[in-house]
Fold:
Amino acid sequence: MTRKYDVIVIGGGHNGLVHAAYLARAGLDVCVLEQRPLVGGATVTEEIFPGFRYSVFSYVVSLMRPDIIRELDLPRHGLAILPLESTLTPLPDGDRLYRDADHHRTWREIARFSIRDAEAYNEYGRSLFYMARAVKHLLGIAPPDPARLGPRDIRGLLGLARHFLDLEPDQLHMLVKLMTMSAADFVDEWFETDVLKATLSASGIIGTFLGPRSPGTAYVLLHHYMGEIDGHFRAWGFAKGGTGAVANAIASAAREAGAEIRTDAPVARALVKNGRVNGVALANGDELHASVVSSSLDPHRTFLDLVDEDALPDDLLSAVRAYRFRGSSGKVNLALDAAPDFTCMPGHGPHLRGAVSISPSIDYLERAYDDARYGDFSREPYIDIVIPSAIDPAMAPPGKHVMSCFVQYAPYELREGTWDEKREAFGDTVVDTLARYIPNIRDIILHRQVVTPLDIERTTGLTQGNIFQGELTPSQLFFLRPAAGYAGYRTPVRGYYQCGSGTHPGGGIMGAPGKLAAGRVLADLQRGLGRRRGRISTSGPGRRGR
Amino acid sequence: MLLGTPFHPRTAALCGSRRWRNWSGYAAALSYEPGHEYEYYAVRSGAALFDISPLRKYEVTGPDAAALVDRVVTRSTLDCPVGRVLYTPWCDEAGKLIDDGTVQRLSPDTFRITAADPCLRWFQDCALGMDATVRDISLDLAALALQGPTSRDILARLVTGADIAELPYFALTECHIGAAPVTITRTGYTGDLGYEIWLAPEHALAAWDALIETGRGYGIAPTGLDALDVARIEAGLLLKEVDYVSSWTALIESRKSSPYEAGLGWTVQPRPSRDFVGQRALKREAANPSQWALAGVEADWPGIEKRFAAVGLPPLVAGRASRDAVPIYAGAARKGGRAVRQIGYITSATFSPILKKYIALATIRRDFAEPGSPIEVELTVEFVRHRVPARVVPTPFFDPARKRG
Structure:
């Protein structure tokens, strides 16, 4: 069976769907191929245990680009982002650090530890606002390559230079620090309270195989601050219906624009002939043809699995082989019979509607990393907890809860044994850690889903279970993502594009790679395929008429 | 969640209006009765009692205490005698306002500074290399303001250990109210005769009760922030984040103000020997003045009346003070008509019950800041915007002799 499309998008995660939606809106005949029975990739909600809905992998939203939400009209397609306003860090001694939208209460809470830190906290937030504002520009442009200096690169670099020259000198200095320092050193310049420093620098280790004291993690911290909801930086939210609702909204927008989305359709390889792509072969042997194929899979899959090595230059192949995935995190999803009862904040309260961070000290996080460096999961892991059912009642039956625990570190490569053997031991470690802060946790667990890096890889296809399609460290960002010279969404195979989180500006439920890659595809088509010129509109909302 | 101040058991019982504002995380009464008119007149004809405990307070001690305070604030404090209080702002190194408050000199080596917002880290960092200690004593001190013509008589009857009647304007004294040791400063935020009382929280309720009891025959009234806002505008006193934006909260450069731009040029006292923070930048600004200035504005009442009368309404501008920015225009005679351009904006405005005028504090172009400059202010009547005549006037708008006398 063959069928000819304008564009085939491999992978129905949020970036593949965003990519498809933009191309379909431009009038192209687009088909998205998703291996699983449902769209979303790592952005899915699944009812693993009856009545309880888990955001199985990714669990919070902030980075989703506002322009994409607006242009694809995602609220009309069902996207609602509920606020996640607080962060509770319980301490082993029964104390806690609780921060929320009540500015003065947060001040008082930090002042219990240090008045100086409470004051520095405002300044810190303001400084990161400037940084996020400075970097926001980068999120919306394809990365110019300073080593190539084509006309587009020069234009892009000049724009960037102008942008950064507008920064105050101290802001520019801070940006350089963020790109080079460790998260722990960076927050050390501001604060003296260990628990505050630990919780802030925890944003710097998420999704990387690095500790808070490893250089480069300060950037990851900034990456998590760039999120914007309704114009406010740093705001994190929870998608009503779980993160799967984000993917479903984008899929709905793509379908409305005319895209076809096929699930249960794993792709075996891209069809390449004479250095040009002309379609894909599905795992079932079917072939689908298109002059453009965009892969939203990670660089490993895009270049090493889907395409023959001889179609690609050596420098790209070796760069992709050296590209760091190093999955370092797992998930434990719990169905609970009642609300978790925290020693540090007993009973119900607004803290249940926010994030809970198990990050009592920098040393705690660093020790957790120490275990992982030598191939063990952390005996006392960093855990980022949200309780979606406390925010969105549709996630669990009345009075019951779902609890999402992002756990780090869980190294993909274990020193001993396999993840299949260690899965439940890992789950037990997480529950034991939780029990130190939530005494009733063991009594209320109705169901436990343990997601190891291996499970992430098996289910979603993300290499080594890296949630960002590769670490977000400075050496793998911007014009180096995924590889020097190959960062512009094109590939050496004509017509074959990359549009996943393994491209600029990287991971998180952002959608920017998918959109920016769509811009690249459309520009190339307009230039190269004159006969289509009448059909392609890069701006209009155009529903494809057929 | 809002906290109660040490006076909360009393203020909560009295606050029949249930109108509270978040003041630095504390519940502060906007008015005790549903409207604030009676409370306003307590300021001007009796004695208004305000709970001002949410102010931030800092204590500076040590051999270099005087040198530190002198380094931080724009007014020279080295020569400030013990027992004096100074109003002063403080600036960042670029000479932009951070905050403002009072500096009390309690002893040669002890100062107390009040601030609107937290400044401990700043004061401590400014103390680098000095033998001085800065402590946040916000929670150690409750505070009341007793403001109005009869405030002196009330305190004179109540206070032991000091002759309040002889306490000069901007001076302080240590004394007792009943058993409670208190510091009394002749300061306030109303531009009237008035005092501020600083005391340990455990004595708060006894002092409150004594003041209310003694003040009964003198027209004392617990008073909220709505009345205070009217009074402070009449007195030409600035409110941080309303009449100027702190350089710590301004997200863009153009929102920041220097003391000169905020009408506080008189507090800038360059030191010959050792610079205060921001001195160099302010020296440059003094030589090359900014185009912005603070001005008092008085709107033409008949002009306002006329606009309302045109739609059959009385002038609906009385009531609470407004903190909404309102554009100010100036018209220039031009060939072929008048060109009107915006030359600034009102930051605080109120109808003054005592002056029977509509007055405002404004930031405007320096060329229009001279008293008497004819300007126009925007006025919205029945959802339609108009411009009404106004003029620049000196501040304070209301300045009774009793304030200093």
